[in-house]
Amino acid sequence: MSDIVNGAVEKLNEKMAGSDFVGTAKFDIVGEGSVFVDSDGARAGDDDAEVTMSADADTFVSILAGETDPTSAFMTGKLTVDGDMGMAMQLAQALS
Q1: Cys bridge to 35: 27, 61, 79, 85, which one at CB 3.0-4.6 A?
Q2: Does residue 23 contact residue 47 with C-beta atoms inside 8 Å?
Q3: Is 24 helix (H, G, I), strand (E, B) or coil?
Q4: How does residue 20 score in pLDDT terms, banded at 50, 70 and 90?
C-alpha cells in the first residue's frame, strides 16, 4: 500500500471523527490505490461503493489539505465522480 493511501486513510479518519456520514464512498487515487469510506471511517480498500471519486495523487492530497476545493476540482475536471452525486455532496459536508 502506498504512503499516499496510508496518509489519506489517516487524514480522512481525523476529518470524519464525529461526523454523521451514512453511506459508502471510494476515493480512487490514480496510480496509488483506493480508500473506502463508510460510517465506520476510512480504510484502504477497493470495495464497491455508492460513489467513486477519482483524482491524481497531487489533486487528492491538495483536497485533503484544504488547498483545493473539491467542487472546483470537479468543475475543472481534476476530480471525477461516478455514482451518487448526493452521496458525494454528503461526504464533502462531513469532511469540512
Answers
A1: 27
A2: no
A3: coil
A4: confident
